[in-house]
Write a structure and sequence with these properties.
The chain is of the alpha+beta class. The chain is built from 11 helices and 15 strands.
């Protein structure tokens, strides 16, 4: 089904101004921070560097599910420029933002996500707005673009590709080494030019009162996991992201200067039969000294595409650990593609006007004979 497009977009020859955005001051509150491994990607091309980084990453992906990368080769000025474009977009009139809305009925997440859904019977709406931008590949050449995206497409699309090339690609190499697969196994499966719903996301958590936060979190507070393969969160200093540690404790994720917070998604958990952890996380009210600040986000999501069959990968490590059985290897029945998997997940979570708790505590649904577990409030 074609993406939804709203006609009558106001036209003007004047470019939308993009004012420089800067990170707010970090919180001064004493928070419980999660201890995350730091992966220095400047060592990736050194002799033996990939193998050493893979060893460092092993515990992070199999126990915590979150880690930080530094020295990525991305210029922070380019990162701040993307924050600035996102900030300018969210200040546009609602009519402009609604030009290309997400088509959740079909599980399509490209476009604008409006903060329109209500949270149960709390009388509080979700405070999240997001703009999800596709990669520049022939398959998506006819997708519409918001005006600010069209005006800045050259630098947005280049940043989009640079993130994959400088960070995501290298992470897939390290994870393949961990799994004792050929180094290019996951990079080829997730190749940038292949059809997938990879997206660069501008995201905004609008300001709430403490009372509104209390009502919202009183209804939904158990967190969620990500649908895709790998997620990247660029540092922006407003605290609020928490992960649930293996001990069951909620701890904050600390912004790292020059660093990018990464986490594994449900796709990698599924492909490795649970070895790689897709950790439950959530966003809570900012600390008191930041609660008045809107939390602007810049994220990148790598997602499995048409060429990925959702089945356990043929990893020698998984076989030794008993996570790859003969039944797994011999199975030749139908399996969903990565795109089908992601879009089913998006539709299940987002195609609704009111977010309610699942009836009877249900936490799974069926897709082509597979049971898809859902970690969401």
């Amino acid at each position: 089904m074609a993406p939804i497009i709203i006609d009558n977009l106001p036209g003007t020859a004047i470019k939308i101004p993009v004012k420089p955005w800067s990170r707010p001051e970090p919180t001064r509150e004493d928070l419980k921070w999660a201890p995350l491994a730091t992966i220095d990607l400047s060592r990736f091309d050194e002799p033996g560097g990939k193998q050493q980084l893979a060893q460092q990453l092993y515990d992070a992906v199999t126990k915590i599910g979150f880690w930080v990368v530094v020295n990525t080769g991305l210029d922070d000025a380019d990162v701040l420029r993307q924050f600035s474009i996102g900030n300018a977009f969210f200040k546009e009139p609602l009519e402009e933002k609604r030009f290309f809305p997400c088509n959740f009925a079909e599980g399509e997440y490209f476009g604008y996500r409006e903060n329109a859904a209500w949270i149960g019977d709390t009388g509080v709406k979700q405070n999240i707005e997001a703009l999800n931008i596709h990669k520049e590949i022939p398959a998506w050449s006819n997708l519409p673009k918001h005006r600010i995206v069209k005006e800045n497409w050259e630098e947005i699309s280049q940043f989009h590709r640079n993130v994959w090339e400088k960070i995501t690609r290298k992470l897939f190499v390290l994870i393949a080494i961990i799994l004792e697969l050929p180094e290019n196994y996951l990079t080829e499966a997730h190749a940038y030019d292949k059809v997938s719903d990879d997206q660069l996301r501008y995201m905004l958590y609008n300001v709430r009162t403490q009372e509104e936060w209390d009502k919202a979190l009183g209804y939904f507070n158990s967190g969620h996991t990500d649908f895709g393969s790998v997620s990247l969160l660029f540092s922006q200093n407003v605290a609020g992201l928490q992960i649930r540690t293996p001990e069951g404790e909620w701890k904050y994720v600390k912004p790292v200067e020059g660093g990018i917070v990464c986490n594994a998604g449900d796709t990698l958990t599924f492909l490795t039969n649970g070895l790689i952890k897709s950790t439950i996380h959530r966003v809570v009210a900012p600390p008191k000294d930041q609660i008045h600040i809107a939390r602007l986000g810049l994220l990148y999501f790598s997602r499995p595409g048409d060429d990925i069959a959702m089945r356990t990968v043929p990893s020698p490590l998984l076989q030794r650990l008993g996570l790859l059985t003969e039944e797994d290897k011999q199975y030749n029945g139908p399996v969903p593609s990565g795109t089908e998997w992601v879009r089913a997940r998006v539709k299940d979570v987002h195609n609704k006007n009111v977010w309610t708790k699942r009836e009877g505590g249900a936490n799974s649904f069926q897709l082509k004979g597979l049971e898809i577990k859902v970690e969401h409030a």
